[in-house]
Design goal:
single chain, about 200 residues, mainly beta, 4-stranded antiparallel β-sheet
Length: about 200
Amino acid sequence: YTMNANGTLQTRLTRNPASDQFPSYSPSGNKIAFQSERDSNYEIYVMNANGTGAKRLTSDSAEDINPAWSPDGRKIAFVSARLGGDQVWVMNADGTHQKRLTSLGQNFVPSWSPSGKKIVFASSRDGNLEIYSMNSDGTHETNLTKNSAYDRNPCYSPNGRKIAFQSLRDGNSEIYRMPSSGGQQTNITKNPAYDDRPSWQPLR
């Protein structure tokens, strides 16, 4: 579904009996990437912003999930279980040239920096989920959080200086903020309810 920012005009975009999840607008706003189970396992699809023209971009027996557009709209990062474990991959926006970027642990929810030079993601390679960053070609993987609790769902601020993420370190799921290079991590939600998947307002 799509809707206005104030909740009005909620409009159904997909009409398939299978599960469609994790929608992501292209930077231009004219396309939406999403994951769908309509072909028996999750694959990455793209469609026009009005729901027409859905096209499958990946076709593997393993699940492909968590699509994320690069800032220039030319590439899509995603997570694939092919070749052993959930790893971050990248492909052209038309589905060509699919390339694996990570090879360690289980990895989830990639997010591009505004410059397109970095990708931040969650990884279990150290025994629990932590936030990592890497260059967009997969080099220079860096652990940004070092906490025994679960950290996940990172995303860059519009100016690239901060990263928001979800953490269980206070006993329940809260949203935290830190510099994009790591460092001081600040709890910005303090509520006994479950807080998940932060998203930044675009710069205007």
